[in-house]
Structures are given as C-alpha cells and as structure tokens.
Amino acid sequence: MNSVYKALYIFGVALIIISIFGGSLFAFLFESLSKNSLEIAGVREEYVTVADNKIDEIIFIEKRFEYRFEQLKSFFSDNKPDERDYQKEKNFIIRNTFYNPIVDIVELFYRLTSFGFAIMVILFGVVFHLLGKLFLYRDKINALELKVYEIEKSSLM
Predict the structure, then answer these.
(1) With 0-12 CB in 10 A as exposed, 13-18 as middle and 19+ as buried, what is 51?
(2) Is the pTM higher than 0.90?
(3) Long-range pairs for 4-11 at CB < 8 Å and ≥24 separation?
(4) Of 4, 17, 11, nearest to 122 (Cα)?
(5) Between these two residues, 74 and 42, which has the higher pLDDT value?
(6) What's the whole-number mean pLDDT along residues 91-116?
(7) Domains of the chain, residue spans
C-alpha cells in the first residue's frame, strides 16, 4: 500500500508538470498528439499546404498583373517599378488563420485533460494513502486493545 500511493503521487505530479509546461518543455509531445488527432479527424496538414499554395499562386498572378500594369505606367513616366516587390512569396494564409489555431485549441484540450487526469491520480493516491493508514491504525488499535485486555485480565487474577 505504501509504494502504491507514493507511485500515484509521483505519477500525478509528473503529469501536472507535463501539462503545465506543455507549451514550452513538452510542446513537441502535445503538438504531435494534436496534429495526429486532426489527421484522424480528416484535417491533414498536406491539404492546408496545397490550399495555401493555390492561394499564393493566385496572389502571385495578381501581383504579376499589377507589375505589368506598373511597367505600362512607367513607360509614360520615369518611375521604374521594383521587381522585388512583385516576387512570389509564401503567405500561409489558411495555415495561420485556421490550421494553427485549431492545433493550439486541441493542444490546450489535451493539456487540460492531462491536468484533470493528474488531479484524479493524485486523489486516488490520497485515497490509497488514507486506506493504508486506516489499516495500519486499525492493527495498532487492535494490538493495544489486546494488551489492555491482557493487563486487565492479569490484574483480576
């Protein structure tokens, strides 16, 4: 009984530490768990990447059109458009707007769940601790009652 409640206490405290520091020390654990859960639910990171690439391509086509329009305007003026302003770039619109916040919410859910589970484990440890002490004190009281009974019995004779 003694080792059971100590093991439960240690396991509960370890889970609390993991869930509290899950955003920094154990971020890889909860992030991979969150991404795997989203993949099981059907939200895959590859789909988000493909959608982001298509959006980036549309934005690049619009920038290329704007660059050609600026070239046409510069034909009538001395201002030359800077080609670096119209380069293709990664915007990660869907990833930053939808996917990453969903991953963060699922990660927070797992952290809160593990914190609640840790509290339950610690409470089970408390129950086992109290039961162990109850049995210990019951045995001590029975031994004391037996000694008192023997003393009373010997004093009567």
Answers:
(1) middle
(2) no
(3) 4/125, 4/128, 4/132, 5/125, 5/126, 5/128, 5/129, 5/132, 6/125, 7/125, 8/121, 8/122, 8/124, 8/125, 8/128, 9/122, 9/125, 11/121
(4) 11
(5) 42
(6) 92
(7) 2-156
